[in-house]
Request: fold
Amino acid sequence: MSRIGKLPVKIPSGVQCKVLGSRFTVKGPMGQLERDLHPNMKIVQENDELKVERPSDARTDRALHGLTRSLLNNMVVGVTDGFSKQLNIVGVGYRVELKGKDLLLSLGFSHPITYAAPAGIEFVVDPKANTIIVKGIDKERVGQTAAEIRKFRPPEPYKGKGVMYSTERIRRKVGKTAGGK
Reply:
């Protein structure tokens, strides 16, 4: 039995869940999320809990059991609390500012980069600290957006410059030494 899959998902007050076949919909104070889940997984709603049941112990069903439960939990947490990722911009002359809902990034290229905010994503920018906070209710979309922003200028190991997650630690390399004969 999957250790993750057998755990029930608690439904907080103010959150409504609907299961129609393999389609799961959850509505909460921060918004609404919908997702098509694998048809083999059965979602049972009892009082204020969701449980995921699998039809057999086949390899694919065991793999989908924990995944389905994690997806349901992330949806419930997303509509109640939301998700966020913080990015730090490190480097001389590297800046970020907010233009409407879009980001304007100056990352050492000959031109600034404009990144349009995807649907359901909100940016909070602190230009003095050069930080970007990506917020949203869909965990997958928040992570993907943060990864796309980081991809413009990933951190490099020699000077540590670039766009990095706030929790990321850069393994620094020693550069060339000025050694002669």
